Amino acid sequence: MHTPFVSVSRFFALLFLVFPAILPAQVLPTSTNHPSFNYNRLSRIDSVINKYVANEWLGGAVTIIVKDGQVVQYKGYGYDDIGTKKPLSKDAIFRIASQTKAIVSVAVMMLYEEGKFLLNDPIENYIPEFKNATVLEKFNEADSSFTTVPAKRRITIKDLLTHTSGISYAVIGIKEMNAIYAKAGIPSGIGELKADLGDKMKTLAKLPLANQPGQKFTYGLSTDVLGYLVEKLSGVTLDEYLRKKIFVPLGMKDSYFNLPADKFNRLATLYTEDADHHVIRQLQDRSGISPDYPKQKTGYFSGGAGLSSTAYDYAIFLQMMLNKGSLNGVHILSPRVVEMMTQNQIGDLMVGNNKFGLGFEITGEKSAAESPKNAGSFAWGGYFGTTYWADPRENLVCLIMTQQTPNSHGDLSKKFEVLVYQALKK
Collapsing DSSP states into helix, strand and coil, what is residue 398? Predict the structure, then answer.
């Protein structure tokens, strides 16, 4: 009997899906002598971060550098508990907040590859409540009442992926929209435990936009809407979709909306700062969110902010993107769709000196002239002090993860950029 040929990589990819427990502990190999790095110069990272810890500007941090698919540096610095001096482990689990967005954007594009929608489809085709969208005209601060004008065109799925939909953020967005969203009970997505995602997105759909669709880059709840779209199109929760389609296949074993009880002890402590800008433990966020929210079971799966993860897991995800959609024989996206996601998709609009793709900020020429990251690098970060970038030109993935907000010494992430590139020999 003829047996069809199955490639070794395809065989193991299928095996990983059926038996995720056999995934290797090290999805990314480690290099202790990578030819592209001067390790003496790389040790400058230690000196700088340790100084921030010694000055009580920072509790702790985890960094990871992946070059050519190999882990070159992966360390924990400082303390998880500044009172007891408990060290921060490199496998600590962080509240990654807006780093959730890139993962959910990939999930959306996986459904795009299945022919579920086209980028310029109006979102109302799938979430009808977005029909007849309006735009804020006048706002009354006294009672948060407002008047509107009709939107000039419909909101597209591409608008949501590029944050040009006109949807703002709750709590941290435009002042007028903060008030309108608060009055309507729209959450930021972080720490929401009891609400129904579909109900909240349908309510959001009936509220005014901050600006006309496509008019400007307005960072907001667009990715939460996309998370609900994933649920609508896939027929499963966003939590289940990410786990089955992305986390398990790639070997991202520490990424969750709901942190398992046996990993509670690895959740990094959340800090803030006092009046002298020294780090202190944070008991509650300014919006009333408990730092323990990853331990508190929720069914509200915020596509814009809900995940917790490790530096290592997120490096796996970014390496998959650098590899044009695949890693270790597991294919998540096609190369061309990855190219689409990581190129300018907002035309002449700007995000500071940068552009924006489908879920990622793209380093522009002006930014590249003023910092070491090469033009075309894709990046973002999270509210609690996590930052990432991937540089296709250098085949480089870098993350620095902290858990502190606000942070007057947040320039550390930019210094980390300099410290990485100054250690490159070629």
Answer: strand
Helix (H) or strand (E) holding 178: helix 175-184
Torsion of CA 102, 105, 110, 113, to 10 degrees: -130
CA dist., res. 252 & res. 74, Å (int)? 16
For residue 94, give the 3-state DSSP assignment: strand
13 Cβ contact partners less than 8 Å away, ≥ 6 residues apart: 249, 328, 329, 330, 331
Distance of alpha carbon 220 from alpha carbon 177, whole angstroms: 10
Residue 219 phi/psi, 5° resolution? -65, 125
Q: How far apart are CA 175 and CA 325, in angstroms?
A: 38
Q: Is residue 308 helix, strand or coil?
A: strand
pLDDT at residue 371 in the model: 95
Please give the Cα distance from 166 to 152 (Å, whole number): 12
Give Cα separations from 266 to 100, 145, 399 (angstroms).
19, 45, 18
Of 225, 244, 397, 419, nearest in space to 317 by CA: 397
What pLDDT, in 10s, does the model give residues 257-269?
A: 999 999 999 999 9
Model confidence over 373-416: pLDDT tens digits? Answer: 999 999 999 999 999 999 999 999 999 999 999 999 999 999 99
pLDDT at position 1 is: 39
CB 271 within 8 A of CB 403: yes
pTM: 0.93
Q: Residue 176: helix, strand or coil by DSSP?
A: helix
